[in-house]
Amino acid sequence: MKLCVLANLYGNLTLEETLKKLKPMGVEAVEIGAGGFPGKAHCNPEELLSDDKKLNEWLDTFKRYDISLAALSCHGNAVHPDPAVAKSFDTDYRNTVLLAEKIGCDTVVTFSGCPGGSAEDKTPNWVTCPWPDDFLGILDYQWNKVLIPYWKEQAEFAKAHGIKKIAFEMHPGFCVYNPATLLRLRAAVGAAVGAAVGDVIGANFDPSHLIWQGMDPVAAIRELQGAIYHVHAKDTRIDAINTAKNGVLDTKHYSDELNRSWVFRTVGYGNGETYWRDMISTLRLCGYDRVLSIEHEDSVMTIDEGLRKAVDFLKGVCIFDPKPTGMSWA
Q: How far apart are CA 268 and CA 65, in angstroms?
């Protein structure tokens, strides 16, 4: 596996300045924001697609630092019930796919998105329980009228442009938030347009969002075997006292760390080495051997400190050598 960084954490720096910081740390690859929530600080697809000179200069920057481009990231909500918002995210997604095709990048990372609860809604509506029955009606509308038709079309678009992997980050607040919903969408798109197209849809496995929901990342990895296309290295610390009082559904601001039921942490500060060793080993056993992309969202540490500690931690628990082809003892 390679150490990778989601580079928008240094959105205040140029791409060159960012890679210059990352190279001495031993980072081998980057995930670059190309629109949506990650922004376009290091990559504006519309601009790069229209200007070959700028595109070649951009690509040369990676070559100078011998850092590969692992994925383009355009997390967004392209099924937002506000048409203007949805169009903006959809445009970013499509331009990201076109840029990925042009530069030979096979992975685009995004969110499934979340529609409103009906065609009349103006804001997304994330359902967390089946009763009252209104909620089942909402889910039926969201999945069958909006989500599946949209991602059927976008999976076909991606496939037509040579993109092998649309990696959905399983994120609460969006329709795909756990292995069951990821596999449901993958199967539904496959049933609609054929398995070869449906298989374009897979997971960006970010354990931080699964941990606070009560999932075991190792079990989730095994459930998603063959459908994990990208991995974010981000941790979550569960506050036992606050969770005991109020549970894990928590809408307090992320800056209210002491009173929240859980907070995002740099890897190793939510869970220890054994936890991460098991996770990384299971990824390999289930066929994933690409990158671990560090996503820094630790509000307790500065970006520089959190990233440095994440890199050092992962160097100690990651498996870098190729999987052995034989066993001398058996």
A: 28
